[in-house]
């Protein structure tokens, strides 16, 4: 690809000041999203995936959180490349909801309970697109049609609490899409939904991506969802990217031991033991204190002395990259 | 199949509130669980799966129907009569945070189970608490700690130790791994598998995750809006589903395999509210095969081979699914 | 790094300087009340007519009243009665309120009856209800405590019942029920331990209200008999001299304001610290 990616995060570090001292939930995230592709950001709780997305949106809680290092480059519609990490918050606010949009796990908390859904969408398009009142309402109905809410003309007057979880997530998506964003950040958008509803929402996001040609950064802990939606996958562990690969490569031949261990934890990959029982593999221990070396080393079956002592860089190799000293040996 | 089931439920119905706000949580549900057997209850919101778990433990009272446990009809037993049920049937909860009293030490959380049935006292009680912690893979010394000092997975282990304290025959596990991370989930699944074998535990395993259920369970009951739509052996249900809803549920669960065919058949619409379930077959509003008759008749469970039953007026060939691997 | 929970508690509590100041003020007031015979410069009832209505001076730092009694000494002794009555009201209303709140919240059939009485009592203005009760019961310290307890118990019932309704639905209570733990233990261990913090916060507020209400009642003549020095009776008996000798009412008034305000601030501090949602916002 010749044109630079839509979003390129380069060696991002985020620090948080808390009562107990300073913490670094994100300490080495490098990833990119091109226009029209879906990149899944995967990790378990505390891996820093959500903090990364907040940093991109300029929504880190202030003054506790700050970007301490790295750049978040975003290619604007004008082809101008800006660093979101260094952008003043007033500029960021303009960008948010116009060129970059975000959807969350719980749409109820992001929707205003006292405004009808039509009013919320209309308000957003008036602000960002400069439409008049009538035009904005018309656009709101169109948006609800776009996200396949049946009977949009009537439901435009409903309030968030009158809708089901799935419908609210559709409204949230309509709101996000109302200004034609070029990048959509979806933070666990289907985690709170039932399976059959989740399938509908995943299909909807995918359809919109194809139609609009936007890039999607899809944050999730669900590897099934990753396989379903992603073109490329970035795996995080303890605040760092440990692997980035095209989705098929990642599931077929993971390079980082954490990725392969995580995949083996899936019930679908359970193995029949000697006694005939099917057991899942698990990763021993928990995420421990992060020291000098590889953060996963204490739980890794392949770790050697050097893994614990020397810092490990993200090693790029064509379309793939991994943060492991021994991935070649392990694969061989 | 074993001769006498440990748990058998007949025509179980639970309604909450009254008209016009009558919520039909569970409607005419029947099943049985043999000693040492694990039955999975699978369904989405409003399916009534958690309500069934609580009815079986008589934490809530049934509206009608009978629950027989270990030979006794417990459907209408008083709290005093339930004392023996409480020793033989226990519960493990979904939320590892809310299921342990934050103000009590682990020792007191587990000890409460021992005290309630006067199973041990003094040094023997402490020893037993340590034993239970070790059984679930935690150091005995951790008994003096408070819940907030543990991770989610460790808390779930404490909850399991509490349930094991009375040496139950049945455990109702209500989404015991769905709040956990994948790697921790795997540890707890394996622990439950171990314990099940070691103590010959029967389980009612409630979950929305078909893959976990398929792994954990001998048999599976699929629920939709308070009714069982299909029940049978786990492999049978996951490889040869007969009810359109079971098929849709299987098709909608994302597979962690990018080479698997993408979800193609989407169920349209929302799950109806249990406050106003559809007439006839509860699934008909979303069923791709529904006919006029489906609105008239409540389909009864009918046999589809050995210990496999499903509730559909029709027996529709499964055209939308790739051949099972 | 493990921090001692007690240390963390105080660090959180005193992050706001005002809370720290209020705590110190309260501590000093309570200490003075307890040590009254040793810290008060004079007997609170010692009448010296030649020194009546003297403004603050080197002998009587806060002046004297219409009988020549030392106002500072009377305020120090008055703290005993005022705070004592306040404390008694807190104890009675907490005990009774917690008990009924727990029962109403846990045993649904009781709920209707208890809450109807609570609603009825709370519909009346606090001070009016208190005056009415004292008028019926007769003016004495005991009856003031009784009347104010009746006024404030419903607040406690409300708070405890609301918390109980939430906690009884939590899985750990369900787990206890599934284990066959008795209702008495569920209430006294599982629920009581977890309603303790909102009740504690409520207690500091009731303490403040009770100190104010006692003063109000005494001022209106519906409180404790005037012989007993409380801050309220001091203002009540001094009000007719206030035009010429402002110190007679000013200093007891300040004592009331200081005590009530400190209690409120401490209560606010406790609430902010115990409420995780507010804590995060800090």
UniProtKB/TrEMBL annotation, chain A:
Major subcellular site: membrane
Domain of life: Bacteria
Domain ABC transporter: 7-263
GO biological processes: peptide transport; transmembrane transport
Official protein name in the record: ABC transporter ATP-binding protein
GO molecular function annotation: ATP binding; ATP hydrolysis activity
Assigned protein family: Belongs to the ABC transporter superfamily.
SUPFAM superfamilies noted in UniProt: P-loop containing nucleoside triphosphate hydrolases
Protein's cellular compartments: Cell inner membrane
Topology of this chain in the membrane: Peripheral membrane protein
Pfam families to which the protein is assigned, alphabetical: ABC_tran, oligo_HPY
InterPro entries: AAA+_ATPase, ABC_Ni/Peptide_Import, ABC_transporter-like_ATP-bd, ABC_transporter-like_CS, Oligopep_ABC_C, P-loop_NTPase
Automatic annotation (TrEMBL), chain B:
Keyword tags: ATP-binding, Nucleotide-binding, Transport
GO CC annotation: plasma membrane
GO biological process: one example: transmembrane transport
MF (Gene Ontology): ATP binding; ATP hydrolysis activity
A Pfam family: oligo_HPY
Main localization (coarse): membrane
Compartment list: Cell inner membrane
Highest taxon above the source species: Bacteria
Topology of the protein relative to the lipid bilayer: Peripheral membrane protein
The ABC transporter domain, residue ranges: 7-250
Family stated for the protein in its record: Belongs to the ABC transporter superfamily.
Name this polypeptide is given: ATP-binding cassette domain-containing protein
Organism of provenance: Microvirga brassicacearum
Lineage: Bacteria, Pseudomonadati, Pseudomonadota, Alphaproteobacteria, Hyphomicrobiales
TrEMBL record, chain C:
InterPro entries per the UniProt record, alphabetical: BP-dependent_transpt_permease (IPR050366), MetI-like (IPR000515), MetI-like_sf (IPR035906), OppC_N (IPR025966)
Pfam families reported in the protein's UniProt record: BPD_transp_1, OppC_N
Keywords: Cell membrane, Membrane, Transmembrane, Transmembrane helix, Transport
Biological process per Gene Ontology, one example term: transmembrane transport
Keyword Calcium in record: no
Mode of membrane association: Multi-pass membrane protein
PROSITE patterns: ABC_TM1
GO cellular component, one term: plasma membrane
Domain ABC transmembrane type-1: 79-267
Entry's family note: Belongs to the binding-protein-dependent transport system permease family.
Protein name per UniProt: ABC transporter permease
Organism of derivation: Microvirga brassicacearum
């Amino acid at each position: 690809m010749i044109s630079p990616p839509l979003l390129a995060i380069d060696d991002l570090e985020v620090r948080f000041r808390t009562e107990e001292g300073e913490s670094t939930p994100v300490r080495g995230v490098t990833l990119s999203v091109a226009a029209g592709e879906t990149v899944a950001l995967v990790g378990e709780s505390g891996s820093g995936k959500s903090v990364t997305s907040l940093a991109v949106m300029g929504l880190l809680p202030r003054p506790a959180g700050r970007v301490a290092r790295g750049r978040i480059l975003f290619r604007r519609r004008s082809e101008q490349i800006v660093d979101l990490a260094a952008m003043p918050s007033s500029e960021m606010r303009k960008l948010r909801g116009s060129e970059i949009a975000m959807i969350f796990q719980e749409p109820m908390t992001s929707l205003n309970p006292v405004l009808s859904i039509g009013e919320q969408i209309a308000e957003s398009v008036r602000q960002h697109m400069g439409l008049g009142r009538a035009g904005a309402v018309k656009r709101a109905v169109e948006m609800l049609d776009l996200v396949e809410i049946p009977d949009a003309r009537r439901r435009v007057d409903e309030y968030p609490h009158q809708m089901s979880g799935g419908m609210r997530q559709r409204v949230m998506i309509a709101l996000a899409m109302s200004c034609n964003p070029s990048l959509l950040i979806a933070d666990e958008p289907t985690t709170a939904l039932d399976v059959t509803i989740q399938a509908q929402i995943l299909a909807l996001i995918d359809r919109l991506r194809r139609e609009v040609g936007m890039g999607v950064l899809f944050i999730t802990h669900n590897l099934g969802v990753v396989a379903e939606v992603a073109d490329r996958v970035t795996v995080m562990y303890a605040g760092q990217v440990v692997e980035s690969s095209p989705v098929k490569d990642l599931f077929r031949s993971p390079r980082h031991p954490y990725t392969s261990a995580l995949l083996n934890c899936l019930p679908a990959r359970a193995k029949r033991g000697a006694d005939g029982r099917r057991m899942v593999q698990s990763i021993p221990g928990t995420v421990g204190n992060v020291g000098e070396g590889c953060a996963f080393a204490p739980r890794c079956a392949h770790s050697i002395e050097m893994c614990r002592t020397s810092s490990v860089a993200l090693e790029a190799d064509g379309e793939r990259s991994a943060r492991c000293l021994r991935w070649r040996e392990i694969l061989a | 199949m074993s001769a006498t089931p440990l748990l058998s439920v007949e025509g179980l119905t639970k309604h909450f509130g009254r008209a016009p706000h009558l919520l039909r949580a569970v409607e005419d549900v029947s099943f049985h669980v043999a000693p040492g057997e694990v039955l999975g209850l699978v369904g989405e919101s409003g399916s009534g799966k958690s309500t069934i778990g609580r009815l079986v433990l008589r934490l809530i009272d049934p509206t009608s129907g009978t629950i027989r446990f270990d030979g006794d009809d417990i459907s209408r037993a008083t709290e005093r009569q339930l004392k023996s049920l409480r020793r033989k049937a226990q519960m493990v909860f979904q939320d590892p945070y809310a299921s342990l009293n934050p103000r009590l030490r682990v020792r007191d959380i587990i000890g409460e189970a021992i005290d309630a049935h006067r199973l041990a006292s003094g040094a023997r009680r402490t020893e037993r608490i340590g034993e239970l912690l070790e059984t679930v893979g935690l150091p005995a010394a951790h008994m003096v700690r408070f819940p907030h000092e543990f991770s989610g997975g460790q808390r779930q282990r404490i909850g399991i130790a509490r349930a094991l304290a009375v040496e139950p025959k049945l455990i109702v596990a209500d989404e015991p791994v769905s709040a956990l991370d994948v790697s921790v989930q795997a540890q707890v699944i394996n622990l439950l598998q171990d314990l099940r074998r070691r103590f010959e535990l029967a389980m009612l395993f409630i979950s929305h995750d078909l893959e976990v259920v398929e792994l954990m369970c001998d048999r599976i009951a699929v629920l939709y809006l308070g009714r069982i739509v299909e029940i049978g052996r786990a492999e049978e249900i996951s490889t040869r589903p007969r009810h359109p809803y079971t098929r849709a549920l299987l098709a909608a669960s994302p597979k962690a395999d990018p080479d698997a065919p993408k979800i193609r058949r989407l169920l349209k619409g929302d799950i109806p509210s249990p406050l106003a379930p559809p007439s006839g077959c509860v699934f008909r509003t979303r069923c791709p095969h529904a006919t006029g008759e489906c609105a008239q008749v409540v389909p009864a469970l009918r046999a589809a081979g050995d210990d496999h039953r499903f509730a559909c007026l029709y027996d529709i060939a499964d055209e939308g699914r790739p051949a099972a691997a | 790094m493990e921090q001692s929970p007690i240390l963390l508690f105080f660090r959180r509590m005193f992050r706001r300087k005002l809370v720290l100041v209020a705590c110190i003020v309260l501590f000093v007031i309570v200490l003075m009340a307890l040590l009254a015979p040793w810290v008060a410069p004079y007997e609170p009832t010692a009448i010296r007519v030649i020194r009546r209505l003297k403004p603050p001076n080197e002998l009587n730092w806060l002046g004297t009243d219409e009988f020549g009694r030392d106002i500072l000494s009377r305020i120090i002794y008055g703290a005993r009665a005022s705070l004592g009555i306040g404390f008694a009201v807190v104890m009675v209303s907490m005990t009774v309120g917690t008990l009924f709140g727990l029962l109403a919240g846990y045993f649904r059939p009781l709920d209707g009856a208890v809450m109807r009485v609570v609603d009825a009592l709370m519909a009346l203005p606090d001070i009016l209800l208190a005056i009415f009760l004292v008028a019926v019961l007769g003016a004495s310290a005991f009856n003031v405590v009784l009347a104010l307890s009746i006024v404030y118990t419903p607040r406690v019932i409300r708070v405890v019942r609301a918390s109980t309704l939430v906690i009884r639905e939590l899985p750990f209570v369900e787990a206890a029920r599934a284990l066959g733990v008795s209702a008495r233990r569920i209430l006294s261990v599982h629920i009581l331990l977890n309603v303790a913090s909102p009740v504690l916060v409520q207690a500091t507020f009731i303490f403040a209200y009770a100190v104010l209400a006692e003063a109000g009642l005494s001022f209106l003549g519906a409180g404790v008999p005037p012989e007993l020095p409380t801050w309220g009776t001091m203002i009540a008996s001094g009000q007719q001299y206030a035009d010429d000798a402002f110190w007679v009412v000013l200093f007891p008034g300040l004592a009331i304001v200081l005590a009530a305000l400190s209690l409120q601030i401490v209560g606010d501090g406790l609430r902010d610290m115990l409420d995780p949602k507010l804590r995060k916002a800090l």
